[in-house]
């Protein structure tokens, strides 16, 4: 199973969602944002090295952290040396060895944004309940359609806790506009603590509402991909 996590713009929590999905699905998370990597970095070969032919794919996978991770470098020189077209082959190699892969895709409509969608079985779209974020999400949804990547789920992230249990009318409109089922993830101090510590939410606050929602999101996305 290969699931690409995408978003129409940065700052909506895409990488946080991808990292927590990796934890819930027992998957390898590939940080495929070649120019603006955001997941935890470690020493050793990374995705830049793999795509430049300097390291073998599985050599770059890190298993020592709370989530198995293929990190991406943060240097401009590394990004320039990487060959983006080799990403699909890299993803396939990780999937063959580990079975489940979550790709943290570049945000927006940059030239490399479509590559993870091309490599994936399905995608998960992350957005926030604001007009600018939803407008950008719609463009990302159209890109997935053009590439013919099925939409497994929409993660409506950072929903205000006071609005989380409110009526579903707005959620229904978002689902209709983006043409996909929606799972809400509440804004929470637990998520912020988990981010600061480099941990998935379920390790920091296993009984919290965000942990429950990430587990639900992972289960529903997996069913959609495997259906």
Written description of the protein model:
The protein is of the alpha/beta class. It has a single domain, classed as Rossmann fold. The protein has eleven helices and seven strands. It has a seven-stranded parallel β-sheet, sandwiched between helices. Strand 2 (28-31), helix 2 (47-51) and strand 3 (69-70) form a beta-alpha-beta unit. Helix 1 packs across helix 11 (209-226). The longest helix has 18 residues, at 209-226. The mean pLDDT is 91.
**What is the tally of helical segments?**
11
Distance between the termini: 11 Å
Largest sheet data: 7 strands, parallel
Supply the helix-strand structural class.
Answer: alpha/beta
CATH superfamily, called what? P-loop containing nucleotide triphosphate hydrolases
CATH-scheme architecture: 3-Layer(aba) Sandwich
Strand content: 15-25%
**Helix share, percent:** 40-55%
Under CATH at level 1, the class stands as Alpha Beta
What form results from the Cα inertia axes?
A: globular
C-alpha Rg (nearest Å): 16 Å
CATH topology: Rossmann fold
């Amino acid at each position: 199973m290969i699931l690409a996590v995408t978003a129409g713009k940065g700052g909506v929590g895409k990488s946080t969602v991808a990292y927590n999905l990796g934890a819930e699905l027992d998957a390898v998370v590939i940080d495929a944002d070649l120019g603006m990597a955001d997941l935890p970095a470690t020493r050793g070969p990374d995705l830049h090295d793999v795509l430049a032919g300097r390291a073998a794919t599985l050599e770059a996978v890190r298993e020592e952290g709370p989530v198995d991770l293929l990190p991406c470098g943060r240097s401009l020189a590394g990004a320039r040396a990487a060959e983006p077209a080799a990403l699909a082959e890299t993803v396939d190699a990780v999937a063959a060895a580990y079975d489940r892969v979550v790709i943290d895709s570049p945000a927006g409509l940059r030239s490399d944004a479509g590559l993870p969608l091309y490599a994936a079985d399905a995608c998960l779209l992350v957005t926030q309940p604001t007009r600018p974020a939803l407008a950008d999400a719609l463009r990302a949804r159209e890109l997935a359609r053009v590439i013919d990547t099925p939409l497994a789920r929409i993660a409506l992230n950072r929903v205000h806790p006071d609005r989380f249990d409110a009526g579903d009318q707005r959620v229904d409109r978002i689902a209709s506009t983006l043409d996909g089922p929606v799972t809400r993830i509440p804004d929470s101090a637990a998520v912020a603590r988990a981010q600061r510590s480099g941990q998935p939410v379920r390790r920091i606050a296993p009984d919290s509402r965000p942990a429950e929602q990430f587990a639900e999101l992972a289960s529903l996305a997996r069913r959609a991909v495997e259906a």
